[in-house]
Design brief:
Elements: H1 5-12, H2 17-37, H3 42-56, H4 65-80, H5 85-92, H6 95-120, H7 132-136, H8 144-150, H9 156-165, H10 170-195, H11 212-231, H12 237-251, H13 261-276, H14 281-284, H15 288-316, H16 320-327, H17 332-342, H18 346-373
Length: about 375
Amino acid sequence: MPFKTATRFSLLSKAPIARVIGTLLLAWAAARLCVMLGTPLPWMIGPLVLTAAASMLGGPTASWIPLRNAGQWIIGCALGLYFTPQVVALVAGLWWAIALNIVWALALGLVFGEWLYWLHHRPGSVGVAPSAWRAKFHVLDLSRTTTYFAAPIGAASEMTLMGERHGAQTDLVASAHSLRVLLVTLIIPFGFQWAGLHGLDSTLPGAREVSAPGLALLAVLTGGGCWLMLKLKRTNPWFIGALTVALLLTASGITLSALPQGLSNAAQLLIGISLGVRFTRGFVHMAPRWLASVALATVAMIVLCAGLAWLLAKVTQLHWATLLLGTSPGGIAEMAITAKVLQLGVPVVTAFHVTRLAAVLLLAEPMYRWLYLEKR
């Protein structure tokens, strides 16, 4: 069974209620176990790992789309509450670092794609015998289109859809993005916990107390932002819509309510499930060398991003752990949650990822046409 994220997600809204409830209970048990074990991000990593394992074993897991959207809505709202006027001024002063991060991400994605193509396309040329080791890595009918859309850093679902429009092998594209996000979500939090990197940032949300009327109004306003983004057909509408409204309110000095910790934990659990169900039984049977090369490249990109973060830290006086989360090749929600839970510069990490996501979405297809279509 091929691994196709778009197809999997189209079925989620029709998932039997028993499968959805069973997956939620499984995820809750995994989260509680991770809390007992003291793992980082227990409410996201526990559900993610156990749901992924159960899915790959053929278990009846399911993620209901409205619940996934609710999780993104809550997280977007929670992150927006960090953008007080003072924090907005700080982030605005980092415009050059944010621009550099965009260029870095685009360049890293291009190099990643070229490397995948070099390693996995039919080795050798006409009349030239390929080396034995290169022949072992050959992926049937692999095209530059596939490797190009499998490589951008960010916008995983959108890259799969763009690749499909241009004739890419969507199972390879989807698997590359899913594995990359999974590995970054696991490696960086566990690495930070091992190194004792947490609680380094004193930034707190603008609202620190829960107010029932304020929380209700915040839900209505951020829900309106989500609705507007849906109408405008923007990517990640539930996350970006809630984030934008909460950010604007907080930056304007309007304090309505903090979010209950239990609500934030529930949102992390729902996002963990939505990531875990991507790993179906078909994922296990994907080209193993393709997945191995994606894993190797992901680790290499984390190391390179750590180097960039260290250099930026020398100039900005921010901690390199915060800048690593901002420049890392992970997903926007996962890295922002990591920053929030570990208290590592939530506004900076969010700003880095939101701007990078926008740039990748705007430039991915034009760059593809310029690099591979117009030069034919």
